[in-house]
Every structure is written in C-alpha cells, then in structure tokens.
Amino acid sequence: MSVRRLAPDHVQPASFAFTAANENWADQQIAKYPEGRQASAVIPLLWKAQEQHHGWLPRAAIEEVARKLGMAPMRVLEVATFYTMFSLQPVGEHFIQLCGTTPCALRGAEALKKVCEDVIGPQSTVTADGKLSWLEVECLGACCNAPMAQINFDYYEDLTPDNFRKLLGDLREGRPTKPGPQVDRSCSEPLGGGDTLKDPALFDGSVIGAGDWQARITRQREDAIRIASEKAAAEAKAKAEAEVAAATAKTGPTDVKTAPAPEAAAPGRPKPSEPNQPAGAAQDTPSATGKAIKDTPAKGTAENAPAAKAAPAAEPAVAETKPQLLTAARDGKGDDLELIWGVGPKLGKMLNEMGIWHFDQVAAWTPAELAWVDARLTGFKGRAVRDDWISQATKLATGWRPESALGDKPVK
Ligand code: FES
Prior knowledge:
Structural class: mainly alpha
Largest sheet: 5 strands, mixed
Bound molecules: FE2/S2 (inorganic) cluster
C-alpha cells in the first residue's frame, strides 16, 4: 500500500479548464444522471481531465471537477487519491505500468523492473526528455500472457528483458510498436499454437449461417469512411470558394489573386496542369482570407505540373508537394489537432508552426502533400502516414469526435 499524494507545488499548474470539446463531453456524461446525482459522473470527469492534462491529475483539475459537479473538493480528492488509475504525479509521454503480481513475478517481472530502473530510473520519475516513466502496479488481468505491462492504453505481453528493453527504445524514438503478445502468438492461446478449435469455419459465421460477416463489416466501415471523406472534401472546397468569393466582392476581381481552393483528398489523383496560369501566380499573393502563407505553391502551377524536360529518370516512391498553409488559425482559433491519433502537444505545436491549424486542411491533403508534411515532422517522421492522418482528419472535419482526447486509434 503506498501513500498517494498530490504532486509538489512547483509542478502544479496555476489553473485548469476543460477544452471546449471535453467540456461538451463532460456535460453529456453529467446529463446521464438524475437531478441531484451529478456526483456520479466524478470518475469519468476525472479520467477526461487526466487525459487532457498529459496523463496526470493536478490539483487544479480536481478542483475544476468538484466545481463542475457541485461537490466539495475534498470529496473529489478522496476519489482521485483512492483509485490508482489516476496519476497524481507527472508521467512520461509513455507511462509504463508494470505488473508485479505473482503470475507476472513468477514469469520474470523482477527482471523487467531492473530494465525499467536501468533505462528510466526510479519509479515515478520522468526521464529528462519527458518520454518515459514507470510504476509497478497490481494484476492487470492479462496473467495468461505474463509478464506484461500496460503502456498508455495498450497492453504489451510475453515480455522478456530483451524485447522489453527494445520496446522502451522504440517508444522513446517514436518507432512503431506492436501491442499485445511480443512472441509468436496472437492472443492468449498456448505458446506454440493451439491444439483445439482450429477449424477457421468456427469463426467466420458460416456455422450459424451468418455468411462472411467480417467482409460485410469491413465493407460497411470502408463505405462510412468514403462517404465522410467525400462530404468533408466537398465542404472544404465550398468553404474555400466562399472565402474567395467574399474577398473578391470586397476588393474587386482585379486586385485579388488567391491561392486555389484545397482539393479533395483523392489519393493518387493526378493534378491537372493549368497552362493559362502563370507559374507561381499565387505564390506571392495572400489568400482570400489574407492568411495563406505567401510562398504556398499553387496546385497546378509550374512547381507541381509534370516537368517538361528536367524530370529525373526515377521518381521517388511518393513525390512531395507543399500543401496550402496558413499564417494563423482562421478566426483566431485552430482545431484541436491533438484529437488526431498520434498528434501530441509537440506535434500539434510543430503543425501550427508549419501553418496547419484545421482538420479540413489535413483532410484536403493529397498523398504527395501528406508526404511533404511527414518529411518535416522532426523526430516523428513517418507518423502522419503510419497513422493515416488524412482519414482521421476527414472524419474530424465532419464534426465527428472520438471518445478519447487522444483520438481514435486507426485500425490497421
Ligand atoms: S499477474 Fe500480471 S497481469 Fe495478472
């Protein structure tokens, strides 16, 4: 049993406020309970506050939840300090909860603790780069694949000192990792493969006449994403055209040179060249909103048109094209880009500095524009492609919101 105290004052933020999206989510949770029973929402609200505050609960967040639920701060503090799912101290970007209970201990958890101490340091300290922290916890219910650890929202099982050390290195460097068993099994079947229930027909629905339900679900999912993608692209185009029209009406057609409307995110679609438009016509001209960055290359200009003579013999696998960027968020307020799975505070800041503020900007990228951005994610290169930001942003641009403030993990 350990004493759970609030973090020291010097790491406590002065204040805490839910984001607009989380405020809205919290109101929906509170509305689930009858009048006078709003305190029942205390755990979901604390959980959401923790998610928003980089994985730990500061005092100000506890007080904000108390204020929102009309509870005495002490009552909320009692809940936050009782449940170990709430971290009261800062945690790393990757928070490792290492199981030390008997089954995991018998299968080698002690050696994993030494790896944590070696790579990260003592429990509850965050590495200097902010990437890792760890804590020993009680059974997490995956004993059949012991020893194991929960890292943020994923379980990593069948750990050994070697694969665990490598896993920590991969997390630290932003390399992709595979949650679940780290050995050659997919679930919790016996090591070396199962001996029973091996007939695939047992799992495809054919035994009960359900047909190929997996293919049907996959089809439905693809249809939903395609429809959302088309809708977002059409809305982005209409919005850009409306902005151009508004600016033209204001300043007169001869004075306005605009960057082109964002194109629909149509993977692989070739870009038409526009021979009547002088090369770079939009490059030194503000957009209709006056916010487009001046050197934003126009789609279809000489920069993007098929090269007439100097085309290299071998094109790179994915060409890079600079997408349309902004000098500031439209109306002074950008979208919460951290709702895109894989985008954290650092990447969000990096994207803003590039001129990317809105979901519809990302949704409108072509694969070449995605490649351009991806290549410039210093320290996170490959993440935008790996996590399929275009599809995620396409859904977000429609107004859809994920359950988690971290976004909706893409299904591979
Ligand atoms: S003992 Fe480790 S998951 Fe149960």
